Amino acid sequence: MQLGQQIRVVTRLAERAATLPAMVDWYARLADAMSARWQDATTPPPAAFPAFRSARDR
User: Fold this and answer.
1) Residues 22, 27, 29, CA angle at the centre, nearest 5°?
2) pTM, entire model
3) Which helix (H) or strand (E) holds 3?
4) Which residue of 4, 35, 37, 53 sits 20 to 30 Å from the alpha carbon of 26, by its own alpha carbon?
């Protein structure tokens, strides 16, 4: 589910930048649909890819 993590990172960054609202909405719905389809990939959530971890978790 690394793709789902990457989609959520992109949506968070775009939301913070207050840009690309249509893309953020579509990506958020895509990530939700992927999580609903492959529930075992998100429960428990997979470990974050190192590049996407916060600095305090490194």
Assistant:
1) 100
2) 0.62
3) helix 2-16
4) 53
